[in-house]
Design a protein that fits this description.
mainly alpha; AhpD-like; 2 domains; 9 helices; 64% helix
């Protein structure tokens, strides 16, 4: 069933078509509740302006979290969006096997470990890992990393729970499922 075509929904729909070539399934889903759509839209627009964390580290953190949760929509869209922003495809494809892949730097490995540990239920972040990241990235970037992983948890868990799946942004998504799934 299609969401109500309120003026706000139509504006978000127009933006999505202009930016992504189509209306995003999460927009359609949230469109059934105007308050949720406004809140999510506002938060996403604000988060898009965060700039203390390196864009590649941000993309890896988001992909790491989405992969752990198993949100095919987020993995599909994240791969497509990160690729078009210049994140090397080899790194995106290697996210599920980051522990054994040789394409990541030490800080990238720490970011992926942090995303995975934050996404665990309950969270499993160690003081040592947090200290390494805080020392290596600086306080502002570390706080942004934490918020990025939390936001991706919100996205991925919501989309997975709503049954959203790949929307075809990367027709044959080259990111394999995490080991053991």
């Amino acid at each position: 069933m299609n969401p109500p075509r309120t003026p706000f929904y139509r504006a978000v729909e127009w933006y999505a078509k202009r930016s992504y070539g189509r209306v995003l399934d999460p927009v359609r889903a949230a469109g059934h509740h105007a308050g949720v759509l406004r809140a999510v839209w506002g938060f996403e627009r604000s988060a898009a302006k965060w700039n203390r964390l390196d864009p590649t580290l941000k993309a890896l953190a988001e992909m790491g979290s989405a992969t752990v949760i198993g949100c095919s929509w987020c993995v599909d869209f994240g791969y497509w969006e990160s690729s078009r922003r210049g994140v090397p495809a080899a790194k995106l494809r290697a996210v599920p096997s980051w522990r054994t892949s040789e394409v990541f730097t030490a800080v990238e490995r720490d970011v992926l470990e942090y995303a995975e540990a934050m996404t665990a239920t309950p969270p499993a972040v160690t003081d040592e890992l947090a200290d390494r990241l805080r020392d290596g990235l600086g306080e502002a970037a570390f706080v942004e990393l934490t918020a990025v992983v939390a936001l991706e948890n919100l996205r991925s868990r919501t989309n997975a729970a709503l049954g959203l799946s790949s929307q075809g942004f990367k027709d044959s998504c080259a990111v394999p499922p995490p080991p053991g799934s």
